[in-house]
Amino acid sequence: MPKTGGADGALNRVNTNSKPTDLRITDLRVAEIVGAPFTSALVKIYTNQGIVGLGEVRDGASATYALMLKSRLLGENPCDIDRLFRRIKQFGGHGRQGGGVSAIEIALSDLAGKAYGVPIYQMLGGRFRDKVRVYCDTDADKPSGTETGRRLKARMDLGFTFLKMDLGLAQISHIPGAVVAPAGVLDGFRTHAGRGRAGTLDERRARNAAYDAQNVPHPFTGLHFTEKGIDLLDQYIHEVREVIGYEIPLAIDHVGHVSLQDGIRLARRIEKYAPAWLEDVIPWQYTDQYRRLQEATSVPICTGEDIYLKEGFEPLLNSGISVIHPDLLTTGGILETKKIGDAAQDHGVAMAIHMAESPIAAMAAAHVAVATENFMALEYHSVEVDWWDDIVTGLPKPLVKDGFITVPDKPGLGIDDVVDEVISQHLQPGVTGIWQSTEHWDNEYSWDRTWS
Ligand SMILES: [Mg+2]
């Protein structure tokens, strides 16, 4: 019998395979891929009604962060997004440690959207814009600003209207007289800990030592720019601006692990190039140093890609920074990032979004971007990845067109499926298959209440 109004009317619009009240989570599986552009783990949450939710564990993070939460989700109704999020949020943390909780929250949101037949942006309150401005990250590994400028100009020719480049230690540390460095410190930043299986205990120990060397916070490295170093960085961005012009927004990232004082020196020197923002000059936890940094320069100061939960942003919002840059795959997911964006708006702070994974992460971010008023631009790392659009079906191809993502009016994330043939060709080293059984996580248990 046809139903016409109210909740009954809503039922007429739901996926015919789905009765949301009786929807239950039956399984959680992953596919660990590499090269899109970095490493990440695609996540599927399966249900008793045939619909599947898609999520993704952040670039560089372990899939374990999601898998360890499986037993806490089995048998639950995925549409109870916030209730389940609050159950698992204590198992996330800053940086990549937020990857599991965030991946799951995104997959739950995808499922709820599919079950009720609405796009995620509509679950967040609807649209502020039809399409999402994408900014194109461009690692400046080139020795000259002119060459980096040409690469950025090629982005503009593709239609991008917002750019980002690196400017800091990496561009000048090989030049004699450019950097003050205690012996051996720079070498530590040039060696990355390897991934995958270590052959011997000594190899494992060496990898851990390489990790430790990269893990020294900025105030303790003893690295400083010399005046010559600052001159070279000034010249580098000057050359870039000469190629791309002075009108297109240009954000700056990867200054290097230098001190607050070096960050202030660099920021003041490059004010004349009107950067869109200067990003992650120091660890985000040093809230008072951020206040001093922003007060010392007219360059908008930005941070946030490693912050978990809205409460992690609150001290920074009070410090006076100009732009936050959350990553949905660290923050706790979609609803949490919407809340973070709104909190930033209350402080007069703009929100850009960090993103460095597959179209699953891109769509999760795009839904928040259209639904949050103070959104500015969404990061995109995969211009050179020719199989990036082929990872999924159901989206416009290319998804990023003329520098923008148009968010489709489809349920959930708007993605139909993941293409197994494509991702199977891009598995992380040591990974033997995709969507393999995760039964060994079904009974993971610990009494984890944090109070008594
Ligand atoms: Mg960054």
Task: Characterize this entry briefly.
This protein has about 450 residues and is α/β, with parallel strands linked by helices.
3D structure, described in words:
A hairpin with a 4-residue loop joins strand 2 and strand 3. The protein has helices at 6-12, 64-67, 81-88, 99-116, 120-123, 145-157, 169-172, 185-190, 201-214, 227-244, 260-269, 287-296, 310-319, 328-331, 334-346, 359-370, 420-423, and strands spanning 25-34, 39-47, 52-57, 131-138, 163-166, 179-180, 224-225, 250-253, 278-279, 301-303, 323-324, 350-353, 375-380, 392-393, 400-401, 404-406, 417-418. The radius of gyration is 23 Å and the shape is globular. The protein starts with 5 loop residues before the first helix and ends in a 29-residue tail after the last helix. It has 17 helices and 17 strands. It is α/β, with parallel strands linked by helices and 452 residues long. Strands 4, 5, 8, 9, 10, 11, 12, 13, 15 and 16 form a ten-stranded mixed sheet that branches. Strands 1-2-3 form a three-stranded antiparallel sheet. Strands 6-7 form a two-stranded antiparallel ribbon. The structure holds magnesium ion. Residues 253, 279-280, 305 line the site of magnesium ion.
Terminal Cα separation, in Å? 52 Å
Q: Structural class given helices, strands, pairing?
A: alpha/beta
Q: What would you call the shape?
A: globular
Tally of alpha and pi helices: 17
Layout: helices, strands, pairs:
Layout: H1 6-12, E1 25-34, E2 39-47, E3 52-57, H2 64-67, H3 81-88, H4 99-116, H5 120-123, E4 131-138, H6 145-157, E5 163-166, H7 169-172, E6 179-180, H8 185-190, H9 201-214, E7 224-225, H10 227-244, E8 250-253, H11 260-269, E9 278-279, H12 287-296, E10 301-303, H13 310-319, E11 323-324, H14 328-331, H15 334-346, E12 350-353, H16 359-370, E13 375-380, E14 392-393, E15 400-401, E16 404-406, E17 417-418, H17 420-423
The protein binds magnesium ion.
